[in-house]
Write a structure and sequence with these properties.
This protein is mainly β. Helices cover about 0% and strands about 45% of the residues.
């Protein structure tokens, strides 16, 4: 059973930066695509970014492209989300997600229902 724990959330002013981390345990991290999603009250969970298990493929939501960067360190079983030029509309609970093991080193997923494991989430609040 894979367990995920996010950290790094907090309160930041608009234009600032935060780096989220997600530590994984209990599985073969190197074969999971890893994603970040976010959710605000009353809305569905929204795709933010994803990286393939090799790290060679990344995808971003249009709303964060050019401002957020996803990366991973397989040796540390950790995935990161560097968030720069933050905006008040980035305020949300951010969730880390892991796929089931994938055969392709370049495969990525963007649909929440296709991710098998989730962390409890970390709050990010951007003040104007």
């Amino acid at each position: 059973q894979v367990q995920l724990v996010e950290s790094g959330g907090g309160l930041v002013q608009a234009g600032g930066s935060l780096r989220l981390s997600c530590a994984a345990s209990g599985g073969t991290f190197s074969y999971y695509a890893m994603g970040w999603f976010r959710q605000t009250p009353g809305k569905e969970r929204e795709f933010v970014a994803v990286t393939s298990w090799s790290g060679s493929t990344t995808l971003y939501a249009d709303s964060v492209k050019g401002r957020f960067t996803i990366s991973r360190e397989n040796a540390k079983n950790t995935v990161y989300l560097q968030m720069d030029s933050l905006k008040p509309e980035d305020t949300a609970v951010y969730y880390c997600a892991a796929s089931s093991p994938l055969p392709s080193r370049t495969a990525v997923l963007t649909t929440a229902s296709r991710f098998a494991y989730w962390g409890p989430g970390t709050q990010v609040t951007v003040s104007s």
